[in-house]
Amino acid sequence: MAKKKTTTKKAPKINFHDWASSNASPKTIKIKGFVALTLNTYNIRGYTSMQNLVRISAADVFEEGKNDTGVQRPDTPSHAKKTIDYALGLSEIYDNASKFYWGDVLLCNRNTNATSFVINGKKHEELTQEQLSDYLGAEVEIIVNTAKLDLDAIKSEKLPDISRVDGNHRLKGYQYKYEERMQNKESTKDLDFLQTPFTMIPGLTVPEEDYIFEMVNGTPKKVDTSQVKYKRARRMGVSLLEGELDDLCLAIATDLKNEGNAFENLVFAGGRVDEQKKVLGRTPPLKLAPLANYVKQQLKEASLFVDANINEPMNIIKSVVAYWNSVKEVFPNLFEDQAGKKGEYILFQAVGMYGFGMLGGKFMNDMLDEKKLDKNYFKKRLQILQKNVDMSRGNPEFTDAAGFGGGKKIFMYFLSQVTDLEITKSQISEIF
Which of 22, 96, 233, 366 sits at 20 to 30 Å (Cα–Cα) from 224? Predict the structure, then answer.
């Protein structure tokens, strides 16, 4: 008689807010700050535990037909978790970079009856911008009675009493980490003591809050930090190879731009663009960080080769550099394309770099089965590609190719043109 399968019931998932409403203390949260002025908006600035801010606030997430007044998008859990790993020192740390920092979590108090303010001994149930202007520089005690907060609004992220304008991923990351620790019955001591700066803005109208949200989240341009990555690669050198995959890719990308290698003078590593223009005669078509990412995709495709050489990282770095040097030798015109990303050929577009990179990864895997290797291994295969494929942007095979997906499409097209049969025919022609 067959035995019945026994199933272990999973413990119910813990929700931080449900747990906090019953177990966290104190029930009345008091946070100290001071009245500040940023541009023409009066606010309260200070610092407190992240747990306090998680308990009292939430994003106001837009959902058509259900919360049309919301402004936030739903958080991305993977990104949220990375932010809290950074704060706890659990993410990658370079050299002596053991200090961590981020800016203020930005909150808007929507004049809820759960919140009151004490300034100069006087208690205010609500604060307008005009009232705050009378207390510039004064110390404030923010008092939040958590029993009066709308817990359902916080959990559903719809119309919370205190909204998160900026810093939602940081606070959600804290929440996810806390829930995970409690679920696994692990210590939360480091989380309990984690502090963060905050700014709370009382007395805004809905349009004013919307506008500040848009300006804070919608207009900043991401700063290119390639020069920092380049400094780290120069400073740490080969020791980068002992770290994570991202470190290895950064080391390889840095080597590829060095003198004598495929991307010499073609990679912007930070600093003044005009200085690099003088050398090249135009703006460098590539940046260090994206180049490291193209290398990362190449190594992911070359997973068998990487696994086989995991304890010999120099084999990996030398193979990638040799591959790209062979690409330049076989396709010199692609590297001389004066218009870069908008040029005649596809190489300096993301799809071209991804396509060539993944093809290199496949060739690296194939090396493991090659019985007779020589220094022209990559060159011979690339010559077959050069014979069979038109690399100009007008090639119909490249139509509508964009981003990583387009790069993969081009990789598969390249692969179809460098078949085992074509390689064998090439080897036969060399022998006879």
Answer: 96
Whether the CB-CB separation of 71 and 62 falls below 8 Å is answered with yes
pLDDT tens per residue across span 283-327: 778 888 888 889 999 998 998 998 888 878 888 889 999 999 999
Pick the range with the lowest mean pLDDT from 77-86, 159-168, 387-396: 387-396
Give the containing element (helix H, strand E) for 105: strand 105-109
Whether this prediction's pTM lies above 0.90 is answered by no
Tokens 């193979």 correspond to what residue?
319
Q: Give the integer Cα–Cα distance in Å for 365 and 371.
A: 13
Parallel/antiparallel/unpaired status of strands 286-287 and 105-109: unpaired
Picking from 213, 232, 194, the residue whose alpha carbon sits closest to that of residue 83 is 194
Quick one: pLDDT band at residue 240, thresholds 50, 70, 90?
Answer: very low
Other CB atoms within a 10 A radius of the CB of residue 286 amount to 22
pLDDT in tens, 150-206: 999 999 999 999 999 999 999 999 999 999 999 999 999 999 999 999 999 999 988
User: The tokens 């703006």 sit on which residue?
Assistant: 283
Per-residue buried b or exposed e for 139-174, using 16+ beta carbons within 10 Å of the residue's own CB = ebebebebeebebebbeebbbbbbbbbbbbbbbbbb
List C-alpha distances in Å: 351 to 57, 260, 390: 42, 25, 15
Q: Is 187 helix (H, G, I), strand (E, B) or coil?
A: coil
User: Could you tell me if 159 and 60 are in contact, meaning their C-beta atoms sit under 8 angstroms apart?
Assistant: yes
For strands 115-119 and 267-268, give the pairing: unpaired
For residues 426 and 377, give the distance between their C-alpha atoms in angstroms, rounded to a whole number.
12
176 phi/psi in degrees, rounded to 5: -60, -45
**Rounded-to-integer distance, Cα 175 and Cα 17, Å:** 9
171 φ, ψ (degrees, to nearest 5): -70, -35
Residue 368, C-beta contacts closer than 8 angstroms, at least 6 positions apart: 304, 305, 308
The amino acid present at 165, given as its one-letter code, is V
Predicted local distance difference test score (pLDDT) of residue 93: 57
CB 360 within 8 A of CB 302: yes
CA 6, chain centre distance (Å): 42
Token duo for residue 305: 């080769």
Q: What is the CA radius of gyration of the chain?
A: 28
DSSP state of 224: P
Distances (CA, A) of 225 to 85, 243, 316, 341: 21, 20, 26, 20
403: exposed, middle or buried (Cβ count in 10 Å: 0-12, 13-18, 19+): exposed
Cα torsion 299, 303, 304, 308 to 10°: value is 70
What is residue 234's predicted lDDT score, i.e. its pLDDT? 57
